[in-house]
Amino acid sequence: MDWHDLAYFVCLVEQQTLTACAEHLGVQHSTVSRRIESLEQALSLTLFDRLGKRYILTQEGELLYAQAAEVQKEIITFERMAINQNAMQGSVIISAPPVLANEVLIPELPAFRERYPDIVLHVRGDVHFSDLYRKEADIALRLSRPTQDDLLIRTISHVNYGFFAHRDYIEHTPIEQWQLIEFQANARLFNWLQNLIHKHSYPVIFSSNDLYVTYSSVCQKLGIAILPYFLAAKNPALLPINPVDRAVMIMHEIATTASHAYIDKQAIPLVQSQPLYVVMHPDVRRSARVRVVAEWLGSVFGK
User: Residue 180 and residue 178: Cα distance in Å, rounded?
Assistant: First the structure.
């Protein structure tokens, strides 16, 4: 039996509906339902009678409720004592896309270490999604929203993308010979690029599924590519491009994600913004050091 199921049992007794219990615990109502079913199966008992949306204790449930409430209090006390004993020391594993880990997190680590010298961060540059259920990471940074409804998900920032080319490439390549560099690893960005290729007959000169390789190829003056603003900013020679009108963009044009060009009266966005999510499993949110790291990530990417 999972002892954490008792918290859902006690809460549902007090709140009486899945929705009210879910709101109280900060989870989805399906999570509460699944936890209660798991507890009933583990005990081989029916704990509730379902009357419409209300959950009413059965006779067996009434006999167990008082004891469950006491056990839950003891578990909470035990966990708080453990957290207080080891609140701001130990390790926290962060899973993040490599480019975000290298370009955004690493420069901020000295300040974090100065403030929290006893918390050791393990930063994993993962191109795949770490399995939070198997504790492959405590916190994950993700550019696509997870579909699991029992994970804790918060939007902490947005990553803006645009088309960029090297200044020398623009100056020495005739407009009619401009070519694209294809980035394949992000489906949304890939579809954005394909829309441009098909409707504007752009040739592809180079293709990669690695963002650093794509960035390097732009720096080597191979062509035009989609890059995140924070990465393109590393090289002052990279210029924002309007590939539809085949022109260099100016600052006020890229200051808004609403910038568009038009092909056959159809709007083509010149800037795209993707949400950046911080994701945790509910079981780790009780850890003070994990919460501290999650808040730090929010401040780093919220700058």
Answer: 7
Q: Both tokens of residue 29?
A: 């109502």
Burial 226-255 (b: 16+ CB within 10 A, else e): bbbeebbeebeebbbbbbbeeeebeeeebe
Q: For residues 61 and 148, what is the distance between their CA atoms, to the nearest angstrom?
A: 29
CA distance 240 to 253: 10
Three-state DSSP class for residue 263: strand
CA distance 145 to 74: 35
Q: 60-119, pLDDT tens digit by residue?
A: 888 888 888 888 777 766 665 565 555 677 889 898 989 999 999 999 999 999 988 989
Query: Which H or E run contains 297?
Result: helix 288-301
What pLDDT does residue 263 have? 42
Greatest mean pLDDT range, 63-72, 179-188, 210-219, 252-261: 210-219
- The crossing angle, in degrees rounded to 10, of helices 29-43 and 18-25 is 100
DSSP β-ladder status, 54-57 and 247-248: unpaired
